[in-house]
Specification:
Mean pLDDT: 95
Strand order of the largest sheet: 8-7-6-10-11
Number of helices: 4
Oligomer: single chain
Low-confidence stretches: none
Largest sheet: 5 strands, mixed
Shape: globular
Distance between the termini: 33 Å
Length: about 160
């Protein structure tokens, strides 16, 4: 059961589990250029999902993974996915000095949200969650938060990446 400030919300899509093959998705790098899971083939992927970069917890979550990114090596990519428009993501990253995570937008088709079971029906935002996917696109770590306003377990996610690197 997922909640937003204690109120129940419905998630659309299939819940992903450790051991699953990571589902493909199509998101936007900018208004024109798209990205898919295949664009990160051969890399360990930490996918940090946030409802909106312009909120306190999402801001802190993205800054924290940006700090960790430099320590994880060249074979690791950290993707932050939200439904924020790509130019809003770019503006936020510039203002926040975030330059080691890649922000991707699921605003057009909500392909990622549905494929990973994190699209919030009532808000059309993505539920805060973390996925670690190995270089062979197998899911190795999953955290779906029960309450949208809570922080994820940063250490567990980073340790899951380090175990693969």
């Amino acid at each position: 059961m997922a909640t937003f400030k204690g109120n129940p919300i419905n998630l659309i899509g299939t819940e992903i589990k450790v051991g699953d093959k990571a589902p493909n998705f199509t998101v936007n790098k900018n208004l024109v250029t798209e990205a898919t899971l295949a664009d990160y083939a051969g890399k360990i992927k930490l996918i940090s999902v946030v409802p909106s970069l312009d909120t306190g917890v999402c801001d802190q979550q993205t800054r924290r993974f940006n700090e960790e990114a430099a320590k994880l090596g060249d074979n690791v990519v950290i993707l932050t996915i939200s439904v924020d428009l790509p130019f809003a993501q770019a503006r936020w990253c510039g203002a926040a000095g975030v330059d080691k995570v890649e922000t991707l937008s699921d605003y057009k088709s909500k392909s990622f949200g549905q494929a990973y079971g994190v699209l919030i029906e009532e808000l059309q935002l993505l539920m805060r969650s973390i996925f670690v996917i190995d270089a062979n696109d197998t899911v190795q770590y999953v955290e779906y938060l029960g309450e949208m306003t809570e922080h994820p377990n940063y250490e567990a996610a980073i340790n899951a990446v380090k175990a693969l690197a």
